[in-house]
Amino acid sequence: MTRTRWRRTAIFLAVGAAAFGVASGVYAAIPDASGVIHGCYSKSSGQLRVIDTAKSQKCATSEVGLNWNQTGPKGATGPQGAIGPPGPAGVSAGFSRLLAGPINIPDAAAPLVTLPLPSGKYFVRAKLAVSNLSAEPETAGTVDCSLVAGSDSDGVPLYLDSASAGVPSPTRVLSFELAHTFDTGGNAVLQCGDSGHGFIARQASIQATQVSQLDSAAISSPPIAPDLVATTITGLPTQSQVQVTIQNQGNAEAGPFTISLMDEEHSGSGGAPFPGLPPGKSVSLSAGCLLTHTFTAHVAQDPSIVPELDTTNNTLVKTVTCS
Prior knowledge:
Strand order of the largest sheet: 4-11-6-9
Mean pLDDT: 78
Order of helices and strands: HEEEEEEEEEEEEEEEEEE
CATH architecture of the largest domain: Sandwich
Structural class: mainly beta
Strand content: over 45%
Number of helices: 1
Largest sheet: 4 strands, antiparallel
Number of domains: 3
Helix content: under 10%
């Protein structure tokens, strides 16, 4: 009697464990890998059962398939939030106008450069490079220039000597700056007069930067000056010559300068004079040459005329074949 009862208990436990294992397997695959629960709804009885599609379980022909997400569908997008306060205004625009010379300065004060500006707050700068071409002593005198914007102005008179031996007087550079607010737009004007002395401006420019606050310490502008650069040395075998090219890469006209082109034996051309060179323009100097030599080209301008932006690029060394 005891043995029979023990065998029945063992069989019951074994069957229960198997049933539990099947139930656990079904639970592990529901929902499926995509998070979807699959079910079947009986058309006749209204009963609903869950199936495991991973085990190829399907609804019967008397059932209707039903699917639903365990996490639920994504909800509708909520209303847009309120617009935040505007950030601080920065620099919004820059304006400039440059007039290359020579420009004859009028007898009475009159505009040389006019820069139209829309409404706003501006920091304005202007520069003028001016000289006297006449050697007549009576032409020495004062040029009076100013930068004007509305009711604000910045001006200074400048005395220029007469030229000597056909060489223009040293070019002088005048700088002006002011801050002004245009309520409805207006003009920044650089104006000059020389009382009939016949001076010329080699270059005149105005730069204006629109700002949120008129803080002159935060505004800067590049200097107006020439920059003579020895750009290339080229051998010309068909002509038995070597040639150097000099370019003014600055933003102002260069005054009188010299170019030398010499090989390692100090043969070539030394100290050839040139009267001047506008910004962006180039000149060339050639010298006789045979075979292959190393040439040194150098350009030099009198620094008392208008100092260059950079003097480290005045010399170029290159080995070339000339014939």
